[in-house]
Specification:
A hairpin with a 4-residue loop joins strand 6 (131-134) and strand 7. This protein is an alpha/beta fold and 190 residues long. The protein is 37% helix and 20% strand. It has helices at residues 21-30, 40-45, 53-57, 75-78, 91-99, 105-115, 146-156, 167-180, and strands at 10-14, 34-38, 61-64, 83-89, 120-124, 131-134, 139-142, 161-164. A 6-stranded parallel beta sheet has the order 3-2-1-4-5-8, with helices on both faces. A two-stranded antiparallel sheet has the order 6-7.
Length: 190
């Protein structure tokens, strides 16, 4: 892909994680021109957190994981996405991305974006020894294993990939990305 400025869009992958899901979607809403790429697991989890696909369609273009070959991945070539985000990313998604496995729509988008040199930002959920997170009906305390930490480190070594360990870190890297693209956060409130 040439070094010319890309006026394209943000591609945002949603996985089956509920950790800071509402906060991640709120962050996506503040970005200009965002399309959501949902894994099948994301479609199962979203309603558990009170999020309907219809409400997402009001704010985003949605692409669903409904084909064996992840047909929507072709939009990376057609529409010239300038940035790929996966937030929040399950430990399963982190492991797949770190090991080059691309068998869901978000992991396929991640792999192809990397091959195109498109910057990828991943908000990995299991990055601290203790993670307190909102489950659909309560708060839970998780203790990620060494394998989750190892996979986060593997992911950090992937070309064109930055890993965020919190929504605040993701917001900071996206802010820098917006500035590099001469774009700004959406300021309208709804």
């Amino acid at each position: 892909m040439s070094g010319a400025a890309r006026p394209g869009r943000f591609a945002w992958g949603l996985t089956g994680s509920g950790h800071d899901l509402l906060e991640s979607i709120a962050l996506a809403e503040r970005l200009p021109r965002v399309d959501l790429f949902l894994s099948a697991a994301a479609e199962e989890v979203l309603p558990m957190y009170g999020i309907r696909l219809e409400s997402l369609r009001e704010r985003f273009r949605l692409f669903r994981d409904k084909s064996a070959s992840s047909v929507p991945v072709g939009t990376l070539y057609e529409e010239h996405y300038h940035t790929m985000v996966i937030a929040p990313a399950t430990s399963n998604t982190v492991a797949k991305c770190a090991l080059g496995i691309s068998d869901t729509l978000p992991t396929n988008m991640f792999a192809q974006a990397g091959k195109l040199g498109i910057p990828c930002f991943v908000f990995a959920c299991d990055t601290e020894p203790v993670v307190v997170t909102r489950a659909p009906h309560d708060w839970v305390t998780l203790r990620p294993r060494r394998i989750e930490f190892d996979n986060v480190e593997r992911l950090r070594a992937i070309d064109h990939c930055s890993v965020a360990c919190s929504v605040a870190e993701l917001e900071a890297v996206l802010d820098a990305r917006l500035r590099s693209l001469s774009l700004a956060w959406n300021t309208s409130s709804s």
